[in-house]
Structure formats: C-alpha cells, structure tokens
Specification:
binds 2-acetamido-2-deoxy-beta-D-glucopyranose, Immunoglobulin-like, alpha/beta
C-alpha cells in the first residue's frame, strides 16, 4: 500500500506547486549581513549539572550540541558572570572603590570553566561572558538580587562612592581568570534584562540608557589598558522593542565606537525588523515561558510556542526581516527538567532527548557556519520563507521554512553551482537526507507541509 501510493502523492504535490511558485535564484554577489553563529547558555548552575552528568549521557549531549556532523554545530556559548556571594569572584566589598579588592577564583565557576573547555574542544571560538548584576555593594540597592543601579552613573550617587571603574576592573578580572586557564572570552556584557525587575541577580538602566552610556567608555578603556581583545555588548533587554529604544540612545550618544554587538532577548517582543545600528545584532536569549508548555520533542502539532516549527519560523524571520547576525537560545542541556521548554536537550532514562526546537536550530546552525554571509534571492514559494547564505568555504546554503499546510516544490538556481544535497526536518524526519532532482539550472526540491528543507550547494 505505502509504496504504491507515495509516488502518486509526490506527483500531485509537484503539479500543484508548479502552478504557483516562481524559481528561486540565488545572487551570490549580493552580500547581506554576516552570520556570527548560533548558541546557548548553561548559566544558573546548569553547567555544573552538565559537568556532573553520567559520562555517556554527557558525551551524547555534547556531540548533539557542538558536533558539526552529528549535531547542531553550535558556535557561541553565553556564560554568566555570577554576582551572588556564593559564586562571585568578589564576595566582599573592599570598603571603598579605590581600595584594592581581593578577588577569589575557584577554578570552577559553577561548572562553566569545564563547559567552556568542552565547547572549545569542538572548535567553538566565541565565548560571551555576561554579568546579570554588579556585586551588590556597587549598587544603589546594596544587593545583587534587588533592583538597583550602578553607583556613580548619572542620578545614582551612593555614600560609598562611584563604583564604575571598580565594576569595569571586576569584569576584566573575570576575563583574566579565564585567560589564565587558557580560554579566551571574546564578548563581554555588563547587563541582563535591565528593563526588568526580578528577585534574582539583575541591574537596572533607564529607557534612555544613560547609565550604560556613562559606563561603556570606562569599560572600553579598562579592556584596552589590559590589552584584551574583547567586544563589548549591550544591553540584553527583555525584547526587541526595548532593545530598539536602548540602541537608538546608544547610537545617538556615539557608543558604537566602543561597543561590539547589540544584544537582545525576545521574551517581550520578537526580532522582526532591523535595528538602526551599524553594529552586528545578536539575539542572546530566547525561550518558552513555563505557562506556554513544557519540554516536548514535537516538531509540529498545533503551532504552540514549545514546538520546533514555531522556532524555525522565528529564526527565519530574524535573519530575513531583522538582519540578525547570531541567534542564541536560553539553555542547552538539562536533566529531568521537562516542566520547562527553555532548553534544547533533556533526558529520557539513560538517553538524551532533543526537543523539536533543537532540530529547528540544527537546520540552520549545522550548515550556516560562522563567517557566512546572507545573500539575496529572487523568486518565491507560497507560504515558504527562503533564506540563502554563502559560507567562507564557498558552499551555498538555502533554508526553506514551510509553515503552510501544503507541500511545495521549489526550483532552484545558483549560478555557477550545479550539484546539491538536501536535508529535511518535519514530523517524521530529523535533519534527514532528502532527494534533490535534476542538476545545473533545473534543480528541484520538495518542501513538505510544516517542514524545513536545507539545501547545500558545494
Ligand atoms: C546581484 O547582486 C549584485 C550586488 O548587489 C547586483 O549588482 C546585481 O545586479 C545582482 N544580480 C542580479 C541578477 O540581480
Ligand atoms: C549560597 O550559600 C548559602 C550558604 O552556604 C546556601 O544556603 C545557599 O543555598 C547558597 N545559594 C546558592 C544559590 O547556591
Ligand atoms: C534619562 O532618563 C532618566 C530617567 O528617566 C532621567 O532622570 C535623565 O534625566 C535622563 N537623562 C538624559 C540625559 O536625558
Ligand atoms: C580579536 O578577536 C577577533 C575574534 O573575536 C579576531 O577576529 C581578531 O583578529 C582579533 N584581533 C586581534 C588584534 O587579535
Ligand atoms: C530607523 O530609522 C528610520 C529612519 O529614521 C526610521 O524610519 C525607523 O523607524 C527606525 N527603525 C527603528 C527600529 O527604530
């Protein structure tokens, strides 16, 4: 039965699509934004959990996350710089900003030192270290987990003095501890969701970003004096709209010369339009609120926020409509944490269990490598978002995201390239090889309903 029917279904899909689609032509000489990579975090002691996991399970999860042939090939990690007294490198106030502080280095960093070494062993070169808060004694609230501002920033005077330089020194010292361990932190952030007031580590800035504007030049100078090669990020706002406001303020204050990357999360709004900056822009955190569902391996069912195809569409929109340069999910690997869908891999007994969201990322991150450029395409396929890239090895990648309920056929032309391979993810395929018909100027791929197809031209 099955073998008798499937060729007929395939033919029907082809006929329907041929009427509506126009051939997709890739223009390799039109260089759009650069891709810095894809990534995730193991912050909040998740790196320690990963480090302590059963060694077989641990290896499987690492391969899935970082391997370029067997896994997602993630290329960026985001560590947090702990500010709680248990884990910070500066648990005690030196008494005043000008007194030499006594740092402590536990050579563990909540498992993040081990995690960073693992990532590096797979070739990860971008390590983003981000502070959620300054140590409590440097803040107007006196506590790292109470809403407050950095003392010494405009309008935030403290009896204990101006701690801006001390905070910059502290951040640079954290990077130096990693350097001592043979690991290069490449990106440094001093805020996390500064437009939000939770009851854990955090620090505020005003909507006009005046606190960040008064701190960034001090941090830049401190990094340069230490002869570190570090890109400064700002501001990891809760969502795109908030970060758009911060970005306009930073640009107006001429902060682009000191900053490296504009960073945003997507909890309060998604990345759907370009920000007004000449800097690269990263989504550095994204996930699923617990109220929207737990961890599921589902690719597509109802289009819920915890399903894979939902995230495939978000990623496509972010790269095509918002000119994004990198996309990071919240956490990577967690053990028995299925009440939340904000991590990519969980466990099922002795096995690793990837989520649908993991496969959405894989369809991009395994194939589009750091240093790639997005390139323009003409033509269109109904209900399908098309995104094309050229890697530094000259391979060309086209990602088709079909969120519609009918199968489509795409005719593809990449001038100068003739042989292509394709991979499919849908409800019954996970980054599985799928067929490409024809060669040269008449290449054709089927994009099933509710699927992503990634095509690679060598
Ligand atoms: C391809 O892109 C380049 C650079 O943007 C442009 O000059 C050229 O006209 C484009 N070619 C076609 C066929 O659209
Ligand atoms: C920090 O240490 C204290 C005392 O040892 C402990 O009670 C608390 O649970 C620790 N906090 C965290 C976040 O581990
Ligand atoms: C920035 O916003 C804060 C808080 O609303 C305000 O007090 C301050 O005057 C503003 N600074 C500038 C330079 O506009
Ligand atoms: C600084 O680091 C970047 C990668 O993060 C690298 O491309 C660049 O060559 C480095 N610059 C120097 C002067 O080492
Ligand atoms: C960027 O600037 C243009 C021109 O000033 C403006 O129309 C647009 O709304 C701005 N976009 C954002 C996201 O602020």
């Amino acid at each position: 039965m099955k073998s008798a029917f499937s060729p007929i279904l395939g033919l029907l899909a082809l006929d329907v699509a041929a009427i509506t689609a126009s051939p997709v032509t890739v223009n390799i000489s039109s260089k759009l934004q650069e891709v810095d990579g894809f990534g995730f975090s193991q912050a909040f002691v998740r790196a320690a959990e990963f480090q302590a996991a059963d060694s077989v399970l641990q290896k499987k999860a690492l391969d899935l996350l970082f391997s370029k042939d067997q896994g997602a090939g993630f290329s960026i990690i985001r560590n947090w710089i702990p500010s709680s007294s248990n884990f910070t490198i500066l648990p005690e106030s030196p008494g005043s900003p000008s007194t030499t502080p006594t740092y402590r280095w536990d050579r563990w960093d909540e498992g993040q030192l081990w995690f960073t070494k693992q990532a590096a062993s797979y070739g990860v070169e971008k390590v983003y270290a981000d502070a959620w808060s300054a140590p409590g004694f440097m803040k107007t609230s006196g506590r790292e987990a109470l809403p407050g501002y950095l003392c010494g920033t405009p309008g935030h005077d403290c009896e204990s003095g101006d701690w801006r330089q001390a905070y910059a020194n502290y951040l640079v010292q954290y990077v130096k501890f990693y350097q001592q361990e043979g690991l290069d932190v490449t990106h440094l952030g001093f805020l996390n969701e500064p437009d939000f007031k939770p009851d854990y580590s955090q620090m505020q800035i005003s909507p006009n970003a005046s606190e960040a504007i008064s701190f960034i030049p001090i941090l830049r100078q401190t990094i340069d004096d230490a002869r570190l090669n570090l890109s400064i990020t700002c501001c990891d706002a809760t969502g795109w709209k908030k970060q758009s406001g911060f970005t306009d303020a930073l640009v107006a204050a001429d902060m682009q010369k000191d900053l490296g990357i504009i960073t945003s999360h997507t909890y309060s709004s998604d990345a759907t339009y370009p920000l007004n900056t000449s800097l690269h822009v990263w989504v550095t955190e994204a996930g699923v609120p617990r109220s929207a569902g737990g961890f599921v391996p589902t690719w597509y069912n109802t289009g819920a926020l915890n399903e894979g195809l939902t995230w495939a569409s978000k990623i496509a929109t972010a790269f095509v409509d918002a000119n994004l340069n990198a996309y990071l999910y919240w956490e990577g690997f967690e053990i028995n944490a299925q009440e939340s869908a904000s991590h990519l891999i969980d466990t099922l007994g002795d096995e690793v269990l990837p989520s649908g969201v993991f496969y959405a990322f894989s369809m991009w991150s395994r194939f589009i490598r750091p240093g790639a450029h997005r390139v323009a395409t003409t033509g269109s396929v109904p209900n399908v978002v098309t995104a094309a890239f050229e890697n530094t090895d000259r391979s060309v990648i086209i990602v088709f995201t079909n969120s519609g309920s009918s199968s489509q056929s795409a005719q593809l032309l990449v001038p100068g390239r003739s042989s292509a391979h394709a991979w499919l993810t849908d409800n019954s395929h996970k980054v599985a090889r799928t067929s490409v018909k024809g060669s040269g100027s008449s290449i054709e791929v089927i994009i099933p309903a509710h699927s992503v197809v990634t095509v690679k031209f060598d």
